[in-house]
Amino acid sequence: MNACELFGRHMKLLREKKGYGLREFARRINILPSNYHHIEKGLKKPPMDPEKVTMLILELGIASDAKAKDKFYDLHAKAIDSVPLDIKDVIKESDAIPMLLRTVDNRKLSEMEVKKLIDYVRNVKL
């Protein structure tokens, strides 16, 4: 299953959980139902416009659920082959973040080592 299909499947689950039919949801987010159907099937990439992505998050009711929103942003980023929209500004605003990412990449940290680093940063007392 490719990244667009994974994102589409996730969108469909969230939409159905919210109780929306496909046509109703497409209308609410101002996308043609046929285009939205293609997104859910993974045949079309999801919208790249940050405002449209924010509209999706709001209509799907995940704006206040950090884990659900992070998962949405991560799947969306993979589907459009980009950096998650919620961290683009963080990267732009801080010279240290790109440096941190390059350091992690240059050190060739394993997935487990990266998770340990994340736990360390979450628990450090400033």
Keywords, separated by commas or semicolons:
2 domains; 8 helices; elongated; single chain; 126 residues; mainly alpha
Could you tell me the mean pLDDT?
94
How far from one another are the termini?
42 Å
From the spread of the alpha carbons, the general shape counts as: elongated
What is the highest CATH level, the class of the largest domain?
Mainly Alpha
Low-confidence stretches: none
Number of domains: 2
CATH superfamily of the largest domain: lambda repressor-like DNA-binding domains
Order of helices and strands: HHHHHHHH
Largest sheet: none
CATH topology name of the largest domain:
434 Repressor (Amino-terminal Domain)
State the helicity in percent bands.
over 70%
Corresponding CATH architecture of the largest domain? Orthogonal Bundle
Name the beta content range.
under 5%
Structural classification = mainly alpha
Description:
The chain is mostly helical and 126 residues long. It has two domains: 3-82, Orthogonal Bundle (434 Repressor (Amino-terminal Domain)); 94-123, no CATH class. Helices cover 71% and strands 0% of the residues. The model has no long low-confidence stretch (mean pLDDT 94).
Brief digest:
71% of the residues lie in helices and 0% in strands. It is built from eight helices and no strands. The chain starts with a helix and ends with a helix.
Itemize the secondary structure elements and their pairings:
Elements: H1 3-18, H2 22-28, H3 33-40, H4 50-59, H5 66-80, H6 85-93, H7 96-107, H8 111-123
